[in-house]
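For reproducibility, we list the full input for the magnesium ion complex.
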Amino acid sequence: MTAAPKPEILAAFEAAKGFMPVDEGLALYAAAAEAARLGLPLLEVGTYCGRSTLLLADAAREAGVTALTVDHHRGSEEQQPGWDYHDPGTVDPELGLMDTLPTFRRTLHRAGLEDHVVALVGRSPVVAALWSTSLALVFIDGGHTDEHATADYEGWAPRVAPGGLLLVHDVFPDPQDEFTGQAPYRVYLRALASGAFTEVSVTGSLRVLRRTGTGI
Ligand code: SAH
Ligand code: MG
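The corresponding predicted structure, in tokenized form, follows.
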């Protein structure tokens, strides 16, 4: 049977600000529950307001591991004022800049998951360069430019333990379907071409790959 999040966590996920549909959330949870059996941390790039983090945290709690989530909390390009994915409720009124950290912290606290998550606030490549611990799962859901998506892959994919999982969100093979560019698709192709990862499942724009080789 596929592992599923607790009903109250799924309800919190559905209520949280964010971009992940329920079917992809369920696939994310199932992958996290499986990977967490390795006894290593789970890591997300792209916290935003904590919607997907809730699921990683619930899986981490079940397995007795920690979920890590990286974000500078200033928003991606397409989330800035004037762009399609902007939410005025994410702007810090004092600075006039996006700050999703307060919303994220409320989301996590209300779900009772604070103790199972470590939030890393900073730019993904900067954090990755300081990181050496192996990870059971890396979920790439950060910036959608080639610069950001490539840096996320290069910084974090090498940390996926043998048998661990690499997940990439917003993979759109057909340019007609994409809404913020195809950089995540190119990263997914690169992971497959590296020989280090094998595809496990596809759910919407979510790709789950397993580390079955070396070479990155
Ligand atoms: N996983 C979230 C959505 C993430 S949106 C959910 O399911 O709801 C993408 C996030 O990536 C934004 O919050 C943005 O601030 C962050 N981001 C973009 N580029 C980044 C970078 N280089 N370093 C850290 N965070 C980044
Ligand atoms: Mg996404």
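The pocket of S-adenosyl-L-homocysteine (ligand 1) is lined by residues 18-20, 46-48, 51-52, 70-76, 100, 123-124, 141-143, 148 (CB under 6 Å). The chain has a mean pLDDT of 96. Both points were considered when choosing residues for closer inspection.
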